[in-house]
Amino acid sequence: MLTLVARRLAAMVPLLVLVSLIVFGLVLLVPGDPAITIAGENATEEEIAATRDRLGLDDPLLVQYWRWASSAVQGDLGTSMFSNRGVSEAIAERFPATASLTAVAIVMALLIAVPAAVAAATRRGGWIDRTATLGTALGVAMPNFWLGLLLATGVALHLGLLPATGYVPLDDDPVSWLAHLLLPGFTLGLAAAAELTRQLRSSLIDVFDQDYLRTARAKGLRGGTVVVKHAMKNAATPVVTVLGMRISVLLGGTVVVEQIFGIPGLGQLAITAVLQRDLPMIQGVVVVTAVLVMVANLLVDLSYGYLNPKVRAQ
What we know:
Blueprint: H1 2-28, H2 34-39, H3 45-55, H4 61-73, H5 87-122, H6 127-141, H7 144-158, H8 174-208, H9 211-218, H10 223-261, H11 266-276, H12 279-307, H13 309-313
Helix pairs in contact: 1-12, 5-6, 5-8, 5-10, 6-8, 7-8, 7-10, 8-10, 10-11, 10-12, 11-12
């Protein structure tokens, strides 16, 4: 298992370097000149030139990249061009909100997907199976921005059951923290729940047709025992793969959901940085998001070692 961990960590290094190069290059292609934005539209050529020199924008691209990357490795992602605040500090302040939203979305997706998939797989062809199939199609097709607006208007504003906007840190009030995240978490996690339900149902059906499960049933084991102790672990591998792939989608979806529900997370920070053309902030947010996705994929790879002993032996 340690060999598997070391191999996966080693593979992350060149990938992270490649991601940083791509992010640095693409950000520089964004239209507009940040020096003009900072100095002001009415600034003179001398003032704009002084701003570019102060920001190091006239240096060769490789010099700019090396200066940024060497600092990023030490945890310093630079300084915002507009607020003069450290990018790492701003991201650390906004990260708990986004992490909380993503975690709640994953938990809600699993709470919906696992019972629905088990019920559909154990009653193939029945009305529960057909209802679950229809529900997964609707869940995948429904845009999260439309669902978010619908929930914020109907559940929060008209019915007053849950808060419509805002975020409360977990340390301040756990109950209020959860109340503020239920609607955005459901909005973000519904599509993931639909995809996980579809995948888990298919995997369980394949496992139910295996000979060892027929033998377990023939020995008189109860249906719940067969599903929990024998079927779920063998059916979980493709589901874990889908869940790992959905992490990047969930993190990307926070940009829209945070705007709808007024959550001060990385999504709002990224939008503000793009509108201001704050290059260090954009680079910092994208790189941190890429690292989070790679860590999630690493955890998925490690879970394979738990679910499949053959992987640990490689």
